[in-house]
Amino acid sequence: MNRSKSRISLFAFVVTIVFFYAPLLVLVFFSFNGSRTMAWSGFSLRWYGEMFFHSRDLWHALGNSVIIALSSSITATVLGTMGAIGLYWYNFRFKRYISIASFLPLILPEIIMGVSLLILFAAIGLPLSLLTIYIAHVTFNLPFVVLIVSSRLDEFDYSVIEAAYDLGAGEWDALTKIVIPISTPGITAAFLIAITLSFEDFVITFFVAGPGSTTLPLQIYSMIRFGISPVINALSVMLLAASIAFAFLSKGVYRYIFQR
Amino acid sequence: MRKNIGALYAFPIGMWITLFFAVPITIIFIYSFLTKGLYGGVVARFSFEAYRELCNESLLRTALTTFYLATIATILTLVLALPAAYYIACSRYRNTLLLLVIIPFWTNFLIRIYAWIAILGNNGFLNSLLLRIGALHHYAHFLYNKYAVVIVLMYTYLPYAILPLYTAIEKFDFSLLEAARDLGAARTQAVVRVLLPNIKAGITTAVLFTFIPAFGQYAVPQLVGGRNSFMLGTVIARELTVTRNWPLSSAIAAALTIMTTLGVLVFMRLNRSAGETIRETA
Questions:
Q1: Hey, are the CB atoms on B187 and A6 less than 8 Å from each other?
Q2: Predicted ipTM?
Q3: Is there a contact between B6 and A89 if contact means CB atoms under 8 Å apart?
């Protein structure tokens, strides 16, 4: 197989990588800057100190984000996996409705979900808090879990389960001894994606968060709204390091989303 | 017997998605036909007022701007993403190169926007640099305009375009390109007429994953856009939280929902028929 590369594609690739990383490198460089501005004034760890010891709001927001990310992605993974199994292998009433309704959020702009949930919470009188953020995050994560787990089920032959039934396995045995073990890579991928999406989400959370329930992205937003914030330079370096680690850990996870 | 078990599995997700997705979407459609309350909220009186406001000139202009910015960003993204994905798929080091694309994909969205604020902002890196070397005497406005919005949209969605394109190109059988060349096709001709039709699904995914979120974008125009780069997302948020005109923001959201759903359906239909035509011709 000859996969010939052209100069155009090399050029586009180099442009892409420079485009991706130049801005991030600028942030890394200036996180060690002594002054408040983006003009270099000498090496300093001042902003790291500021971030670690004088940014309580930031750490509080991080705590909220961790709570929401873990709780919402566990819920979404459980409900979504069950849903994917049910939708994939069985027929029942409302199947079409459920499969459309759990796909539609994927193609709608995020702001629609944010606005509609805010209006729902206002209509039923539920005050905005961590609970409303949790509900929103489970809702936007569910379609991703269903999509990812179903593409894993896609790779797998249903006759294995039929064989198990023929050999006398009950529903419970089939689920715990066959279906769950074979879908584990998909379930893990879905769980990782759900955690990241939840940790990252700004738009939907912006609408359903109340005072005191700030998440990390909301906190970052309020700090960068009016321009440059050197503490954010330092925070970027930490988050960039985290995403590099995460990219290594979860290589290949993206496949389940983009395959179809 | 088997039927009941499927419904049992799907019952929780069905309930959840009904309560927190289907019902809220229905509510915004209903609210869009109600009357605006005095202090926000709605009064239960039927009205077309929101849709009348929706059709006023400034909102229509915003809708056009939104469409224009999202389209330009999507086209530019694809122009860069296609050859870049091709390069990665053809490389011997594709796993390493792929990782270089996945890292920005996992990097916080607001941090990535902020990087551009830090570079292009009025007190940003570029201005300080140009002032120091004397190329500028007074700082320039690189930010808060349409160009900044398009650049940051591209920056945000480029990984979302490269990954599906890469997945599609990776599966492509490159001997087809060779065959085309052997049969006398020029290099570009072979790419346009053999490679592109074969990775159509990847292109569709890339367009959808770039255009839809760009079209409904709220944070980017808010943070790096100016007065003439307002997008629909910004207006929805303003009507909801500042002006507190809920019927109007519901109407815009409802219109956006319908437009997106129809757009996706048409796009997928067109794409499928295009794919079928090619398969039949082949």
A1: yes
A2: 0.89
A3: yes
Run of H or E including A220: helix A216-224
Q: Is B259 on the interface with A (CB under 8 A)?
A: no
Question: What stretches in chain B show pLDDT beneath 50?
Answer: 1, 277-282
Give the rounded distance of the alpha carbon of A135 from its chain centre: 15
Residue showing tokens 């808010």 = B222
Shortest CA distance to A183 belongs to which of A75, A84, A69?
A84
Residue A112 lies inside a defined structural domain of this protein: yes
In a domain, A16, yes or no: no
Which pLDDT score, from 0 to 100, does residue B243 have? Answer: 85
Q: Closest Cα to residue B236, out of B214, B252, B257, B256?
A: B252
Ramachandran bin of A204, using left for φ above 0, alpha for ψ from -120 to 50, beta for the remaining angles: alpha
Tell me if chain B has a CB within 8 Å of the CB of A213: no
CATH of the domain at A196: 1.10.3720.10
Q: What is the DSSP letter of B92?
A: T
pLDDT in tens, A18-45: 999 999 999 999 999 988 888 888 898 8
Domain B56-281: CATH superfamily, name plus number: MetI-like (1.10.3720.10)
Adjacent-strand bridge partners of B35: B43
- Where do the domains of chain B lie? 56-281
pTM for the structure as a whole: 0.89
Q: Is residue A185 assigned to a domain?
A: yes
pLDDT, tens only, B191-207: 888 888 888 888 988 99
Q: Does any domain span residue A44?
A: no
Structure tokens at A251: 């290589």
How many angstroms away from the CA of B184 is the closest CA of chain A? 17
- In Å, the largest CA–CA distance within chain B is 80
Alpha-carbon gap, residue A223 to A230, rounded angstroms: 10
| Interchain contact B128–A (C-beta under 8 A) | yes
Backbone phi and psi for residue B48, each to the nearest 5 degrees, phi listed first: -100, 5
